[in-house]
């Protein structure tokens, strides 16, 4: 028998507009950085959308959201995390007036969620900076983006204040360090981007995030506004003190983002990093005061842990680890090289809670895998994804352990609750969902939806509030 999770625990799933909606040029939507990145983070940036970009159609959620929300409701979702496509509201990003058709779409989407008893959890900026802001202003390097983001935030807060209680400011805000175009809309190629410009862009995002919290609290007193970071706990590769310090310094680069958003000021270790690297952050006159507007909760993604070492021969990015680090010899990896570490989720929950004493929300966790569509005994198409069930079960058991540790956890939204286009690789074949979408890497397919085995498993987890989870004996990897 598994744990019983707290009453009111927000079970659900998560998607991002740019990976599922499609309709990239319908109803007044402008282009985003995603529309010109057909191969994900590893491929070239194109001048205009090309037919090989699967995200242009996604899974056609824009036209099929009612069908999909119905399936989520069948699983028993209490919350549905999605994002608003900034360029659907302000097509160029610096427009003076919003696009009413875009606003209407999210009205309808949130109404559909609420009709089924599902709270929307909405990310304001999820890897899709309006392309115009990227090309004309060099994305978040330019301070003007703070004002454009403020206008956008005010617009959607005012429009949806009666419908959305939970908001996130930026998705995986710390990923800008490794993927400045994807995460920060920075048009300068990564190899040419100076640390000065990179961390100036970071500062602008942090100010914008705090400004959104300030405005949100003024406009929506009952709303909860959180930050969202990519969590990747870093273990010392060996007990050598040099490796321990290397792991600490590696983790500082990630903690920095949550530190500022949860504590309202720059930490000393980051000021040292700036001094030692010749970085001088240009502050606006009110920036330090604005940063004091801290988030109500910390949300994060968790997929992998990594190791830190001082050994220069080993300090090469492990395949699949978005923020770097070295491979842990005690862990197995997914088909895409992401190391699987359920206990790392309990560890990071403890680390965040000890550090911030704020409620936590796991808003992304899941297994990307190549699923095979088969027919069950009744001839109904399905996927026998026991590997996904075990992955999610083992991670949720560790969430239960963290609850026993006394951690305050608001909820859990499994990533890619319906198959969508991968952010990192722009493939359909890297599937996360409980629901199979019939679309292939070459763009073919009917877009029909089919329940996987994990669909029924997750439905039971939710209906029993976690009691159906199975505790497997922990195996020691040798």
Task: Give a short synopsis of this structure.
The active site is at residue 364. The chain has 478 residues and is an alpha/beta fold.
Write down the CATH class: Alpha Beta
Query: How are the strands of the largest sheet arranged?
Result: 1-2-3-4-5-7-9-12
Count of strand segments: 14
Number of domains: 1
Do you know the CATH topology?
TIM Barrel
Any idea what the shape is?
globular
> Class by helix and strand content?
alpha/beta
User: What's the average pLDDT?
Assistant: 95
Number of helical segments with 4 or more residues: 14
Q: Percentage of helical residues?
A: 25-40%
The helix/strand series, from N terminus to C terminus, equals EHHEHHEHHEHHEEHHHEEHEEEHEEEH
Rg from C-alpha positions? 21 Å
Distance between the termini: 28 Å
Question: Unreliable runs, pLDDT <50, ≥5 residues?
Answer: 474-478
Q: What is the CATH architecture term?
A: Alpha-Beta Barrel
Q: How is the main sheet built?
A: 8 strands, parallel, barrel
């Amino acid at each position: 028998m598994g744990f019983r999770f707290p009453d009111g625990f927000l079970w659900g799933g998560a998607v991002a507009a740019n990976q599922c909606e499609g309709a990239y040029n319908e109803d007044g939507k402008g282009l985003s950085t995603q529309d010109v990145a057909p191969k994900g983070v590893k491929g070239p940036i194109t001048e205009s959308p090309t037919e090989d970009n699967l995200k242009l159609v996604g899974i056609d959620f824009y036209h099929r959201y009612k069908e999909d929300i119905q399936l989520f409701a069948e699983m028993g979702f209490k919350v549905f995390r999605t994002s608003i496509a900034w360029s659907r509201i302000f097509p160029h990003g610096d427009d003076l007036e919003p696009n009413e058709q875009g606003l209407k779409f999210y009205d309808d989407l949130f109404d559909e969620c609420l009709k089924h008893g599902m709270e929307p959890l909405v990310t304001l900026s999820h890897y899709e900076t309006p392309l115009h802001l990227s090309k004309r202003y060099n994305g978040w390097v330019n301070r003007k983006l703070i004002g454009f983001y403020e206008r956008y935030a005010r617009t959607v807060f005012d429009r949806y204040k009666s419908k959305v209680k939970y908001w996130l400011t930026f998705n995986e805000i710390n990923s800008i360090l490794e993927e400045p175009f994807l995460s920060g809309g920075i048009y300068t190629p990564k190899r040419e981007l100076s640390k000065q410009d990179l961390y100036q862009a970071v500062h602008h995002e942090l100010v914008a995030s705090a400004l959104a919290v300030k405005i949100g609290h003024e406009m929506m007193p009952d709303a909860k506004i959180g930050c969202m970071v990519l969590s990747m706990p870093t273990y010392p590769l060996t007990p050598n003190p040099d490796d321990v310090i290397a792991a600490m310094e590696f983790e500082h680069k990630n903690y920095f983002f949550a530190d500022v958003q949860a504590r309202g000021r720059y930490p000393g270790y980051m000021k040292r990093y700036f001094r030692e690297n010749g970085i001088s952050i240009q502050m606006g006159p009110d920036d330090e005061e604005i940063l004091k507007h801290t988030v109500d909760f910390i949300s994060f993604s968790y997929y992998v842990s990594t190791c830190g070492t001082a050994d220069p021969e080993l300090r090469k990015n492990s395949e699949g680890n978005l923020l770097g680090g070295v491979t842990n010899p005690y862990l197995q990896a997914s088909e895409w090289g992401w190391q699987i570490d359920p206990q790392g989720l309990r560890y990071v929950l403890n680390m965040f809670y000890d550090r911030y004493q704020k409620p936590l929300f796991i808003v992304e966790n899941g297994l990307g895998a190549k699923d095979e569509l088969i027919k069950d005994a009744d001839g109904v198409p399905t996927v026998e994804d026991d590997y996904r069930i075990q992955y999610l079960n083992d991670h949720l058991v560790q969430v239960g352990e963290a609850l026993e540790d006394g951690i305050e956890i608001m909820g859990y939204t499994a990533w890619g609750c319906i198959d969508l286009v991968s952010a990192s690789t722009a493939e359909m074949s890297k599937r996360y969902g409980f629901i199979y979408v019939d679309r292939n890497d070459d763009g073919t397919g009917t877009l029909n939806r089919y329940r996987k085995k994990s669909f029924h498993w997750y439905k039971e987890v939710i209906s029993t509030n976690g009691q159906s989870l199975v505790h497997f004996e922990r195996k020691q990897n040798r």
